[in-house]
Amino acid sequence: MDIKWKTFYIALECKPFSKVGGVGDVAGELPWTLLQNGLDIEIITPLYESVHLHNLVIRHTETFIFQFEGQKERAEIFTGFVNNLPIHFIANQRYLEGDYGQPYVFSKDIPYLDDAKRFYFFSEACLFLINSKDPDIVHVNDWGLSFLLGRMVQCQMRQKRILTVHNIGYQGNIGRKAIENMAIETFLTDEKTQASFLDPRAEWSSINPLRMGLELCHMANTVSPSHGLEITQPEDPKSYFPGGKGLEKTTNELWQQGRLLGILNGFEYSFEPTEELFSEILQKKTECKKQIVSDYFQTDGLVLGFIGRAVDQKCKLLTEVLDNKDILGHILDISGLNLAILAQGDPEYEHFFLRYNQYKNFWAKIDFDQELASLIQFGCDVFLMPSLFEPCGVAQMASMSRATPPLVRWTGGLIDTVIPFNSAHGNGFGFNGSNREEILNAFLQTIHDISWLYKNNPQAFIPIQKNAFYQRFLWSDAARRYIDMYLKKF
Fold first, then answer.
1. In this predicted model, what pLDDT tens digit does every residue of 232-242 receive, in sequence order?
2. Within this chain, do residues 15 and 147 fall inside the same structural domain, yes or no?
3. How far lies 375's CA from each of 21, 36, 249, 472, in Å?
4. What number of other Cβ atoms are within 10 A of residue 377's Cβ?
5. Are residues 206 and 318 in the same domain?
6. Cα(284)–Cα(276) distance, rounded to whole angstroms?
7. Which of 16, 34, 459, 470 is such that its CA lies 20 to 30 A from the CA of 24?
């Protein structure tokens, strides 16, 4: 397909140069596939001081000087090519170096405030590049680049505006008083952006950049079909359902208008599945499990593995109390079961896990250890992923590529990627419920069922492992959906 339209793909992180989360993965994988599918596309991303260029040859191409926050600022553009894909890095000493020299920073007193200033500056610099190269489509990611869409509307720019929402829980909310006399206050004084820039919860008296991005874009998408529908509904804490996190009115309107889509992320595979390779993977899994068991456990029973951030989204269900005992304690009481955890994040969760290290069928390491993560993904029998919500999820895709069936909560992208083990082509396990007690009981019952199956019919795991191993979530499939979105007329 030869598509003449030029697209700017703009992200605040892009692997392998800068990566914190899923945005970096998508920005580092999707544009290359779009290029291969005939799209004229270029990436724009910040040149943080922490960026590692990995021997990429770059050259200085442009310099823009403009007034920002009452001072003269310089935005320098450096361009490199990876497999014929242009990548433009925007550099600035004040907002992208020193204490600001990484993708996201912690604002101690007012959350989001420092990042809002930085990302608004970056958006302002992007305007100059857009005016210079005149693309047809500007595709941005998440709340931090909603500023750019707002500025494009203020400047009445012709380009089609596309927004991908990776996590609707991050909206950039800041109290209105905190932005007085700041550059971003312009969105509150311009009638083209004023209404959309305010948070819909009037009692918050705050701004909401993500709302502005959603309401001012031509098209928006989330990173899985199920999550796209979920964010059009109100939050229900009683069933651990996050919904649209206060933006459900906006997202529902977009959904009804056909302007909000759910496009499942792809995964970057390093091999093609074959029978021979599956046999080799099973052998490697056996060796890795032996190492896990001999190093940490006193039994060779079922091994569950958890790798992830120690945050509410990933860990809360493990700490919930049922019948006077938290769920993790209930799990560890199951005979013949072992659980290995590699996590890092909220100190409260880190301490929670470490308290259980006295158990003989449990160990936890508080760290980000890539080698140990690979050992767990290969060596565990089932990968544990009881997320409260999951816009798409990459960990379950990674575990399946290693012939490790995941155990997930049926939510968001986990619904779209994991097939129940007792269905045709089943590649994993799942649970859910309509209220707190149902969900927690279903979680425990599913683990009991897996443990029973492993103990009484271990051969039944092999077809589940094979289905997981052969499952493919390809960026080429996602790219076609994105191109269809780009080509929609308005």
1. 999 999 999 99
2. yes
3. 21, 33, 44, 22
4. 22
5. no
6. 13
7. 470
Indicate the pLDDT class of residue 4, thresholds 50, 70 and 90.
Answer: confident
For residues 261 and 370, state if they share a domain.
Answer: no
Residue type, 434: S
Give 54-98 pLDDT, tens digit per residue.
889 999 999 999 999 999 999 999 999 998 999 999 999 999 999
Element (H, E) at 338: strand 337-345
Find out whether 362 and 384 touch, Cβ atoms under 8 Å. no
Distance CA 144, CA 113 (A): 11
- Averaged pLDDT for residues 199-220: 98
* Domain span including residue 153: 3-266+476-487
Rounded distance between C-alpha atoms, residue 35 and residue 23, angstroms:
18
- Does 482 share its domain with 336? no
Reduce the DSSP state of residue 363 to 3 states and report it. Answer: strand
DSSP at 304? E
C-beta of residue 22 within 8 angstroms of C-beta of residue 265 = yes
The answer on 139 and 84 residing in a single domain is yes
Same domain as 283, residue 198: no
The two counts, helices (H) then strands (E), for the chain are 19, 19
Of the candidates 475, 478, 483, the one whose C-alpha atom is nearest the C-alpha of residue 2 is 483
Distance CA 280, CA 257 (A): 49
**Residue 300 in tokens:** 């060779």
Amino acid identity for residue 253 in this structure: E
Are the CB atoms for 322 and 330 separated by under 8 Å?
yes
The structural domain count of the chain equals: 2
Helix, strand, coil tally for the chain in percent (to 5): 45, 25, 35
Q: What are the contacts of 247-251 at 24+ separation with CB within 8 A?
A: 247/168, 247/171, 247/200, 247/208, 247/210, 247/211, 247/214, 249/200, 250/200, 250/211, 250/214, 250/215, 251/168, 251/214, 251/220
Same domain, 253 and 328: no
Distances (CA, A) of 262 to 224, 332, 391, 393: 5, 37, 10, 13
DSSP H or E segment with residue 462: helix 461-470
CA distances to 49, 210, 419 from 256, rounded to whole Å, are 42, 19, 28
Pairing of strands 325-326, 321-322: antiparallel
> By the 8 A CB rule, do 266 and 33 touch?
yes
Q: What is the pLDDT of residue 2?
A: 60
Non-local (6+) Cβ contacts of 430 within 8 A are 407, 408, 409, 410, 414, 418, 420, 446
Q: Which residue has the tokens 């290029």?
A: 35
pLDDT for residue 300: 78
Dist. CA 490–CA 435, nearest whole Å: 41
Rounded to two decimals, the pTM is 0.95
Identify whether the C-beta of residue 428 lies closer than 8 Å to the C-beta of residue 449. no
Q: What is the CATH number of the domain that holds 438?
A: 3.40.50.2000
C-alpha to C-alpha distance for 384 and 447, rounded to whole angstroms:
10
Report residue 202 CA to chain centroid gap.
Answer: 29
